[in-house]
């Protein structure tokens, strides 16, 4: 029996593939940090039965119409806005993602980014490394408190709930806005459901944890930032497209909001001359929300389990 060909769009540890070597014939882009060129991916997909890809790959209508026997796409992410789902459905291609396994790790990063932004940790680190620390003063690099402040969580999904648990430990008041109200979450975490405008107006920290959809595209725009407190801090660990970067930059420059912590951007990667990266009151991270060794390994493992299930005629664990 001929083994199905699985094309992997980034170099991953061989030990993770070993258990499946008798099932699949793996082909892999041999770069760890550089995305596979689209031309190469298009050619490889013509022979591939399955694809293990990242958010960096655009799986659009053109791509799907030029595939051969492609049966399944295992997307190594919770979100799948890089995939044209309608075209995949029309082509009969199964799409899977990796929810759950990254929830706690991404929540850790969200709260770490919130705290680092609030307490100006990166600025303080650079202050010493640039040899600027000549004396101590009462308000030297003074930031904002986190404890007993109000956090506004936009998107109370798995990650939103995990962030709320961490906020509860800091004695924070928890507000949330979601497409639907979650009564059990409110009871369990003491969270309060409010509308979007109320959340913006009342929160000391506004966190974006929503998927990128037509409805959430530029949800955080000029109008949204104007409604936030002037002492408010904006945190985005969802998708860059949920925020209007120009509006955010202008709000920060005009001191309409105090600071921002960003793990995502509208177009990635960004360079050091990106407007937001030039501001002292913005912490920029290179989309590392789920980047712990354990979690990334679990995400790859889940992708492989989904691929394995499909080719054994079973229902994949996390089909979109």
Task: Provide a quick synopsis of the model.
This protein is 34% helix and 15% strand. With 320 residues, it is α/β, with parallel strands linked by helices. The chain has 2 domains: 116 residues, NAD(P)-binding Rossmann-like Domain (Rossmann fold), CATH 3.40.50.720; 182 residues, Rossmann fold, CATH 3.40.50.
Describe this structure in words.
- Its EC number is 1.1.1.-.
- This is 2-hydroxyacid dehydrogenase.
- The chain is α/β, with parallel strands linked by helices.
- It has two domains: 5-101 and 293-311, NAD(P)-binding Rossmann-like Domain (Rossmann fold), CATH 3.40.50.720; 103-284, NAD(P)-binding Rossmann-like Domain (Rossmann fold), CATH 3.40.50.720.
- It has twelve helices and twelve strands.
- The strands form two sheets. Strands 8-7-6-9-10-11-12 form a seven-stranded parallel beta sheet, with helices on both faces. Strands 2-1-3-4-5 form a five-stranded parallel beta sheet, with helices on both faces.
- Helix 4 (85-91) links the parallel strand 4 (72-75) and strand 5.
- Helix 5 crosses helix 7.
- The protein is globular, with a radius of gyration of 21 Å.
- The mean pLDDT is 96.
